[in-house]
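S.,

As promised, the pyridoxal-5'-phosphate run. Input:
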Amino acid sequence: MSRAVRATINLSALKHNWDAACAHAPRSRVLAVVKADAYGHGAARVAGALSGAQAFGVAGIDEAVALREAGIRAPICLLSGFQESAELPVMARHAIGSVVHEETQIEDLQAARLDRPIAVWLKIDSGMHRLGFAPAQVEAAVARLVAVPAVGELRLMSHFANADDTADDYTAAQLKCFLDIAVKYKYACSIANSAGVVAWPDTHLDWVRPGIMLYGASPLLGRAAVDLGLQPVMSLTSRIIAVRTLQAGDPIGYGGDWVCPAATRVAIIACGYGDGYPRHAPSGTPVWIAGRAAPLVGRVSMDLLAVDLAAHPEAQVGTPVELWGAHLPVDTVAHHAGTIAYELLCGVTARVPRDTLA
Ligand SMILES: *Cc1c(COP(=O)(O)O)cnc(C)c1O
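Predicted complex:
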């Protein structure tokens, strides 16, 4: 038994989105990004369903080892890189590769004595200025890495800062910066995230690295996922557990921010920020009930939220609701809450049971 809130993971939607990514980039290999528990969808479940993926990307070693323990055999890459030398023997044992973005990582690799070499994705900072070697440092970094016995296959990668904005020419500038370096080598190259896959075909290169699009949220500013042919994978659902009729002037919830303007029928729903629903979602954020949206009213609390049932006379205790998912895009809820779908999907908490829909 559990509370009514649950996240249903639709694997056929996931496979549909995977096919869409492959269709966008037919000549590229695909590294499916499953970091942060596959953006909250369950990394083992998602990786297990994406049997066509040539590789998986995670943030760190614990996520990678968990995939191996779940029986995932494809190559895995640590997208934030290994963080201490003690990880290297574990990576060698489990055939886990890594992004290398820092001098100290090269030193760790030089000092390592491993049974098997590790695949390395050398990260070039093409303009995001977060991780990666500056263009002028790349030649020396490559020269050092190729001389290290612990380094197996070497590849070059970079990451976009603004590719979600199709009007921003920074993406083209980053691509040029990356290619100006990459053309000097024969190594396989990768720079495209989901936005690159969908909107910037010149960025596809040898490997693409889609994340958010696989989960059916939009990678592009101002473009709905459905218009990009993507299907929502996670549906966060719950039920109405109380229906109240309140009077004009009655405040609802903590702080009493929202006051009934007139006699109002209100539903209390078993879902709150303790489940990962954003506390800062304002009154007016849509909640899907019986085929149409009802507005959130008052502050979201840990286990509960309230909606105005003015347009839902048939709703009653037990009526199912969708917080986001198949009917209500997670992008829409994120937009109301002043955040992005990535944060909402990753933020669904451990107490929410995940159901799998084949
Ligand atoms: C998370 C991540 C991706 C995937 O980005 P999306 O915007 O979710 O497609 C790709 N590459 C790297 C290095 C990442 O960290």
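The mean pLDDT is 98. Residues 11-24 form the longest helix (14 residues).

- D.
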